[in-house]
Write the structure tokens for this entry.
Amino acid sequence: MSRSAHPAGPRHADVLTEGHYSAPPADLNALDPKVWARTVSRDEDGVLTVGGRTVTGLAEEFGTPAYILDEADFRARARAWRTAFGTDADVFYAGKAFLSRAVVRWLDEEGLNLDVCSGGELATALSAGMDPERIAFHGNNKSVEEITRAVEAGVGRIVLDSFQEIARVAHIAQELGKRQKAQIRITVGVEAHTHEFIATAHEDQKFGIPLAGGQAAEAVRRALTLDGLELIGIHSHIGSQIFDMSGFEVAAHRVVGLLKDIRDEHGVELPEIDLGGGLGIAYTSADDPREPHEIAKALTEIVTRECEAARLRVPRISVEPGRAIVGPTAFTLYEVGTVKPLESLRTYVSVDGGMSDNIRTALYDAEYSVALVSRTSDAEPMLTRVVGKHCESGDIVVKDAFLPADLAPGDLIAVPATGAYCRSMASNYNHVLRPPVVAVGDGEARVIVRRETEEDLLRLDVG
Ligand code: LLP
């Protein structure tokens, strides 16, 4: 089982006696391609390169900390999802994982659609010229202003999350003289994280309308009567960082069951189902994610089989991967500031960022890998904890990892697989400035989100 901890993942109290880091890796200089962006390697001096650029050069030009994103890898992963699902399905990139205008343009060029979950994400997509028809708008409490803007812009679908929202969106659309395409998000009683899923009681959450007790059927009943809505399908999202398809299997079974009930009650076969996102990536070498073509094959087979059994036309499937596209494509580049050995415990390595650029370790007990990237080293492995510069002892970036014992201030280290939910969840805690996102490819590097400045901070503080 994977040891990468996530929202429902395992806790490792004592890495010295438990956990896969209890033995150091055979070669500390090796870069496991599972966790690093695809164009990453080391040059003849041992310096990590990505997109044809050295990290030492990038640090000099853009400073640290910085998120370094491999554009070719992002495009290749987006394309792999698109190709795997083919023309009979839609891939909506989940912008919450990481969104910028450059990303929107890459998605557009690679033929993906976009899932946004706030007015801010919608504004980013529209300002980058994304065709509104290819945007899905999510959220459990969209404001009237956000809904109005989305309907006016002509988004391809709004995912309705509650009874109130069904009425609200229908009303707004009608006022605007429109008929808004919509899906209803239901909770199917399945929650999946990493390798496991639990198939009971997961209506107990804020998202969606429960299938249980006939609530989803009632939501459909209402939506079908409202002139402002064109109900095009049912949506289900079961969790995050999932490796095992069995949770999707149960979800698809239940969603198709609802489609069948709708057909029987209303004589309507809804044309689409969305199975959400949540597909896992490798944060450490212990994780074994599945390839997009395997996932596409599995999901398509599940839905087709369920529909055949229910004698339904197979609906158009959509999925919403975020992490699985952007997660592996970036790493965070830090400079080591201090090294504090604690005898028979571990060595604390402080970097120039921390929980403000990666909250996932503190928030979810997530596991990450780390490597010395400005050089190689033949020194012995030392057990380290990579920590940030914040005034908080829980400010941990990598809880337990081996780095070479000659690690010193000024060395550059990098944490891979930080493309998803790191910049997008970054904060200004302690008024630390959020790092830039630098896209690299073909020997070129360009800032796609610039580093925050003290002027940015002070602009918001109106005194
Ligand atoms: N679709 C819906 C409706 C979602 O709620 C989410 C994620 C996704 C798609 C994309 O899921 P992905 O493929 O990226 O796993 N901040 C957490 C993850 C929260 C995910 C919320 N919803 C983390 O850092 O792990």
About this structure: The two ends are 52 Å apart (CA to CA). The chain has twelve helices and 24 strands. Residues 6, 94, 96-97, 115, 138, 237, 240, 276-279, 320-324, 360, 420-421 surround LLP (CB under 6 Å). The first strand starts at residue 41 and ends at 42.
